[in-house]
Amino acid sequence: MSKAWRLVGADGNSYDSDRPGALGGHRRSRIYGRLDCRAALQAIARGGYVKNRVFFLNQTDARAAGYRPCAVCLPQDYARWKMQQDQAAASR
């Protein structure tokens, strides 16, 4: 029997996977980032963060599930996401 990991899919629902997640996220803040993210590791060390921790197979799934990139560990992806948000707000 192979090990299973619990991931969040593009639809926002959890599922079991035979592959570990490549990205971690926080359910309440709706932010995702690298598993070695300095900000996430600091939050985990402070406690309380882990109960809302989720995992994604890739960025496509994380974005489709409504999460945004972390500004600390994914600064270029965050800058693109922020620009898109600003453009959407300007066009309203």
UniProtKB/TrEMBL annotation:
Region (Disordered): 1-21
InterPro entries found in the cross-reference section: Ada-like_dom_sf, Ada_DNA_repair_Zn-bd
GO biological process: DNA repair; regulation of DNA-templated transcription
Top-level taxon: Bacteria
Swiss-Prot/TrEMBL keywords: Activator
Entry keyword annotation includes Methyltransferase: no
Gene Ontology MF: a single term: DNA binding
Pfam family for this entry, one: Ada_Zn_binding
Residue intervals of the Ada DNA repair metal-binding domain: 25-75
UniProt-listed Gene3D superfamilies: DNA Methylphosphotriester Repair Domain
Protein's recorded name: Ada DNA repair metal-binding domain-containing protein
Organism of derivation: Collimonas fungivorans (strain Ter331)
Native organism taxonomy: Bacteria, Pseudomonadati, Pseudomonadota, Betaproteobacteria, Burkholderiales
